[in-house]
Predict the structure.
Amino acid sequence: MRFLLAAVVLLAGPACAPGDEWAVGVPDGKAASGPPGPFGAYVGYGSEGVRRISELDGWLGPATPRVGHAYQPGDTWSRIAGPGDLAHWAQWRRARSDRLFVLNVPMLERTEAHLPDGEVREQLHRGADGAYDGHFRRLARRLVSLGLRDTVLVVGWEMNGITYTHRCGPDPTAWKAYWVRIVRAMRSVDGQRFRFEFTPNRGRDAVPWTACYPGDRYVDVLGMDAYDQPHGMSFKEQVREPYGLQAHVRFARAHRKPFAYPEWGLYRNGDNPAYVRGMLGWFARQRPLYQTISDYCPHGVWRCSENPKSSGVYRRLMARPFG
């Protein structure tokens, strides 16, 4: 999904019957054991994003967002590897030892330029041959120097789709080889403790995401971006579809990897509180490493006035203390 921003207001929604809240969307129908673990939201870049995380904390009450999520710019190599707004997030991360910082990193410049497959294939081969190693070492050194040495890096996200230049479809073999080069380059920097997250779109999309998986040695976390789409698809179908939520968790567990959801939210089915309830129930049941909702319209629940019913469900289910 594209990472855009929008402003909004929040409203409360109708309550669910006690005991039903965490059962929705769980394949065996059993209620989950409690609230859905470490969470945050994508709410913007730099100081603005840090400020909004604090405001989200105030809105939720007892539940505390402990995950910050940001993106490196993807237009030029100098900005992909450059400082960006990382200093603000470094300050936020240092303030509490239990916080987690998640950073999406494009694999190629002109990230959303919709380049033709032939050019993408050529760029992937250049990357696999080491042409861009220096950019990723530079970014790694920057992160370490700021104290963000334990960042979760979501590299080349949604590679199974067609939105981004760093898509896998034109040449999965070259894509995987390039991923390995990036991980090796960034791991070579002294002091780093990065975790590298492989994050496809939910479902098959343009290519099966399993065809792009670069191997256990070079992946630390199995992510998934999971929006409420396509139109008319129920949450239960999103769980059970090929390459869907259930397949993702099974794949992660088979490979002994933690899993996460760096992007999720409403989309093609409008203000859909059943989807929000289903996702939060799924998180509570499956216990991901973290989850961060994309909180801008049309996806969000805090900063999007288009989704008042979903907002009410999210606030009620998330606003509970947990460890």
